[in-house]
Amino acid sequence: MSDRYQGFVSTPIGKLLVKNLGLPAPVRLERYTAGAPLVAGTVVVGGRGRLAESLPGLLDTLGIASTTATADGEKYKGLVFDATGLESSTDLVALRDFFTPLMRSLDSCPRVVVIGTPPEQLEGPARVAQRALEGFTRSLGKEIGRGGTVQLVYVADGAEAATASTLGFLLSPKSAYVSGQVVRIGATGTDVPEVADWQQPLAGKVALVTGASRGIGEQIARVLHRDGATVVGVDVPQAASELQTLMKELDGDWLTLDITAKDAPQRIAHHLKEKHGGVDAVVHNAGITRDKKLANMAEDRWESVIAVNLTAPEKITRELLDQGLVNAHGSIVGVASIAGIAGNVGQTNYAASKAGVIGLVDAFAGELDNGITINAVAPGFIITQMTAAVPFATREVGQRLNAMAQGGLPVDVAETIAWYVNPASSAVNGNVVRVCGQMMLGA
């Protein structure tokens, strides 16, 4: 689906109205296409700290050109600043000194990444300075404009070598609709696998995707297939035809069942064990809405949403882990929602279920071993057939109330999930990243 307002403001009369009335002017975001370089331009690297010297080499392994010296008149596609060496509030001036001279030298749809140390690992003035980075990056994300994004990556001491997949995602068009986020990379007890081919990091891997036949689920399946995975799609029997058509196109496998059925976790586990010997990525995408204000909420509306969106993912995850079917360095991803963070009128059931998905991440993150991770995405306003049915005025407000003044696409959610399930992301655990264009309110 297209954004008709975005098309209008690119016309001569639209540009005139935007200028005179101060209307939002969304930039057409750059998105990744298979086979393209991760970054079509040069990234400026600066700062002082634990990663400063290694950053150019890390970016080089990804095929990303970088420089520590800038030239007048040059345009740059990204900025990476190592702030791990900032040890007091007075050191924060280094942010201004690095970024201010470069902000007008950024190309369209630029990427900015600040790297810090998790504040909880520090004490005193250093902890203060590192916590301040969150306010800086979130504010810069709301003023950068031109389709740009700004992120903060907290890298635990000892996890410096595990940052490549995260930098590749955040500096590339794959993160087009992700901004103002805080990502944590923690030290792990196992070595992070090396990726032989960054174009297909999931080669030889098996990925389970629920709700895979259409919408966001379909895009997740397509992107994971693009990255080399064998996709096992799961959906309800009513969607069997669409599911089979898609999986045949992707040379994948499929299983039709209701994930809320009592034996669904066992059936999924049996299928993965017998046909694939296990699974490397589990993506809990299936979800439903049954909206009503709480005063009018019937029991079946409440129970069905909780069952599909939360209870089923919890039971399936537990079954696969108990049977040892999630392979080493595998990943589990839940699809939460901005509604689970900020709430939404008429969605107490849905918001509870999606906040519960975040709770699922919290509950499992500390007990996983063998390099297995669990994370979640929290989409904001994503343009789908479902959101097309939303009343026009409500839809327009939903799309404009973010730093990019537009809705996201299903592929934006899919790309974020593909980053999580990349084996090189084995140090990314317990994160909830919002795919919302940095919403202005509530989150």
| CATH uppermost class of the largest domain | Alpha Beta
Strand order of the largest sheet: 9-8-7-10-11-12-13
Strand segment count: 13
| CATH-defined fold name of the largest domain | Rossmann fold
Task: Estimate the helix proportion, in percent.
Answer: 25-40%
Q: What is the overall number of helices?
A: 15
| CATH architecture descriptor text of the largest domain | 3-Layer(aba) Sandwich
Question: Briefly, what is this?
Answer:
This protein is α/β, with parallel strands linked by helices.
Task: Give structural notes.
The strands form 2 sheets. The chain has a 7-stranded parallel sheet, sandwiched between helices. The chain has 443 residues and is an alpha/beta fold. It has 15 helices and 13 strands. The longest helix has 24 residues, at 299-322. It has 2 domains: 41-185, NAD(P)-binding Rossmann-like Domain (Rossmann fold), CATH 3.40.50; 206-435, Rossmann fold (3-Layer(aba) Sandwich), CATH 3.40.50. The model has no long low-confidence stretch (mean pLDDT 94). It is globular. Helix 7 (215-226) links the parallel strand 7 and strand 8. 48% of the residues are buried. It has helices at 4-9, 12-21, 55-61, 93-99, 124-143, 164-170, 215-226, 240-249, 264-276, 299-322, 339-342, 348-365, 385-388, 392-400, 410-421; strands spanning 42-47, 65-67, 76-82, 106-116, 149-155, 181-185, 206-210, 230-235, 253-256, 279-284, 326-335, 373-379, 432-435.
